[in-house]
Amino acid sequence: PAKPIFSEQLPAGLQTISNIVAVSSCKGGVGKSTIAVNLAYTLADMGARVGIFDADVYGPSLPTMVSPENRVLEMNAEKRTIIPTEYLGVKLVSFGFAGQGRAIMRGPMVSGVINQLLTTTEWGELDYLIIDMPPGTGDIQLTLCQIVPLTAAVIVTTPQKLSFIDVAKGVRMFSKLKVPCVAVVENMCHFDADGKRYYPFGRGSGSQAWIAFLTVVQQFGIPHLFDLPIRPTLSASGDSGMPEVVADPQGEVSKIFQNLGVCV
Ligand code: ADP
Fold first, then answer.
1. Residues 6+ apart with CB under 8 A from 7
2. Where would you find this protein in the cell (predicted)?
């Protein structure tokens, strides 16, 4: 159990949250949202009070991945605060629940919207707030990391050379901000069929890119590496609005997320 963060400087809405964990990737489509959502529901299953903040203003995935009854965020007009919606006990805030179409916004506006959504939400007491970061390491991500006192970061990548190079960028960003990067998840590295294991992106280990990647991991002392296989059920559950760890709590995927949950 983590210690609560109590600081005068913290935005009021964040003062009752013990751990704020960023799930980050340098590219879109590598499985960052899938991992953020399944990690959140695993922590909830382990007994924690959990919230998810979907910070991807341009392409919010949370509304597809979970099925709250109330799909629009409510406002407390008097206090000028946002009430999160909820699905299976996890509190949820996403631009996709803001009741507007996808916006065309410039970077500084995006940072303002993210800041407002995040800090004026009535999160209440939470053990973990999982932030599904917008992909990349640009100004929006930096501003977000500066507003929020992150306690840990998880970086998601796929096993290709270009992605490994990007991981180094992500790790450096968090390192500069003094946020501990506790795990890297290598997603979609293999799948099993007909009793055999296939590596569709090539077998990373031994290649130059893999060695470069491991060097970064060692240099920054990232303590945990996870492999998440390609699983059709993981994709199908993401589309169905029920995370795989909820649909199959005893399954192979749930075990991986339980191990990741212990690390954050
Ligand atoms: P990101 O947040 O990085 O853009 P998503 O989590 O939205 O990525 O994942 C992109 C797509 O890939 C989604 O359709 C998701 O269901 C699917 N996906 C992610 N990880 C896996 C996996 N390990 N196996 C199968 N499908 C996956």
1. 15, 149
2. Plastid, Chloroplast stroma
Per-residue confidence band for 2, with pLDDT thresholds at 50, 70 and 90: very low
**Cα(232) to centroid(ligand 1), Å:** 10
Instruction: Give the mean pLDDT of the chain.
Output: 88
Note the ipTM here. Answer: 0.99
Report the alpha-carbon distance of residue 183 to residue 171 in Å, rounded: 10
- The structure's pTM equals 0.93
Domain ranges of the chain: 16-263
State how far the Cα of 241 lies from the Cα of 192, in Å rounded to an integer.
25
Q: CB of 29 closer than 6 A to ligand 1?
A: yes
For ligand 1, the distance from its centroid to the CA atom of residue 24, given in whole angstroms, is 13
Tell me which residue has its CA closest to atom 9 in ligand 1.
31
Cα–Cα separations (whole angstroms), residue 12 to 8, 88, 146: 8, 25, 16
In CATH, which superfamily holds the domain spanning 16-263? P-loop containing nucleotide triphosphate hydrolases (3.40.50.300)
Summarised one tens digit per residue, pLDDT across range 144-159 is 888 898 999 999 998 8
Owner of token pair 């382990």: 46
H-helix or E-strand spanning residue 254: helix 252-263
User: What is the whole-number distance in angstroms between the Cα of residue 235 and the centre of ligand 1?
Assistant: 6
Closest-CA residue, ligand 1 atom 22, reads: 230
Distance 30 CA to ligand 1 centre (A): 6
